[in-house]
Amino acid sequence: MFILPRTVEIVIQPQYADTDMMGVVYHANYLKYFELGRTAFIEAAGYSYVQMEEKGFYAPVYDARVTYKSPLRYGDKATLSTWLSNNDGIKTTYAYELTNENGARCVTGCTTHIIVKKDSFKPVAFKKAFPDWFHLYEEWKM
C-alpha cells in the first residue's frame, strides 16, 4: 500500500522576472508557486496531470486564496509546504505555506479544484473519474 506524506515540501527560488519594481515577488506569482507545490504533491501520490489529461480530464482551479504575510524577494530561498485540506469527492483543496530561509511565513493560501471532461468542460466527480486516487487521498487527508 502506498503511503502519501502528510506534507510535500519544495524549494522556491524567485527569479528576477518574478519580482516587481520594488524587488518583491509580484503577488500573482504565488499562484504559480502553488501550482509547483501542487504538482509535486500529486507526483508524490504517484499521479500526474499528464495521466489525467491522457484519460480525458482537466482539473481547473475553482477557487484560489492567498494571504500575504511577509515579502519574498529576488535572491531569497523559500520552502513551500503543500498538503491536502479537503477532498469531498467533488472538490479537492490543497493548502500552502511559503516560508523564507529565516523561517518567516511569507504567504499562506489554498486552491480548490474540480475535475472536468476535456471535450465538454462538464464537471465530473473526482471519486468517479479517479477512484484509486480519490481513495488514496481519503486515507490520508488531514
TrEMBL record:
Keywords: Hydrolase. Transmembrane segments: none annotated. GO terms for molecular function: fatty acyl-CoA hydrolase activity. Belongs to the 4-hydroxybenzoyl-CoA thioesterase family. It holds the Pfam family 4HBT_2. It comes from the Bacteria. CDD domains: 4HBT. This is Acyl-CoA thioester hydrolase.
